[in-house]
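hey team, just a heads up i'm posting the complex here instead of the shared drive bc the drive is being weird again. everything in one block, sequence lines first with there labels, then the predicted structure for the whole assembly after. its two chains so it's a bit long, scroll down
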Amino acid sequence: MAGTPWRAPDERYTPGDLEDFDRLYRASYARIVRTVAGIVGSLEAAEDCAQESFARAYRAWGGWRPEVPAEAWLHRIAVNTAISYRRKEQIRTLPSLLRRLGAPAPHSDPADAATNRAVLPELRRLPPRQSAAVILRYYHGYTNREIAAALGVSERTIGQRIADGLSALRIRLEGR
Amino acid sequence: MEPDQGTFERDMSARLRAELDALDVSLPIAAAAPYRIRPLKLVPALAMAVGAALVLGTVAAVASSTPYVGQLVQAAEQTLGLPSHRPDTTTVNQPSPSPSVTPTERAEPSGSPESEAPGGSGAQRESPDPTRSSRGSPEPGEGAGGSSPGDG
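-- predicted structure starts here --
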């Protein structure tokens, strides 16, 4: 699978070193934002979540262990931040969701339904842990083992999340 | 799995990559990293909380240490323009008239025997509370008595 590898050759960071954290921030900010954007669905929200994630990472930078790649560690923080954002958003949007219940579905052209549908909105409809696994696998090109190490779950769990996410996406994107 | 599963994965992966790469992501401010600024948002709230705690603590300390709590309350009521609703406080918080009188009455009986019988017992009845009498009469009686252990 094509993708940027976890560990770039020049990735040498020292825990607690602020200059190193600045370097990590510049190197990984855009990738973190894109990961989060796939989970939360909008660039604006993704940038907010990414800032929050970097703020948390900055406070915990002294405790980072170099056995875990720095960007994987960042991804773990960012995914957790995005998941909690989604939870809060569900609570915020619950009233409007309830108002929409029973209303006629918005206009949709069946011809558009299959191939022209964008992936990101459908990805956002997945459970956040599934969408995170799909993004890390198919956008960043990480292996299941690397994702499992980054998110702190078993490799089997990651495989299951990816399989579930893919089948849901396939139904929504291709109608089967 | 179905034979076109791989095709779907490739197609979906390519579309996902195209959509995410199309997002215009740029570092917010290169010079001042926002992650360092963000925790400072808590500082004003913390400062306000500490200030409020100090004020409340000071008021509580003053109110609990002064013997004239009722006067403090009355002063606060007057400041706020509230009607005073406790006329009884004058009896409770009015130690000043009797202490200023009582010592002199206690000092005089030796020179005026006719006033000794009713006046002496009356003075003791006026200040049954030892703390109140000690607060109100620092100079003549208690001062002499208090210095005696040190002198002797």
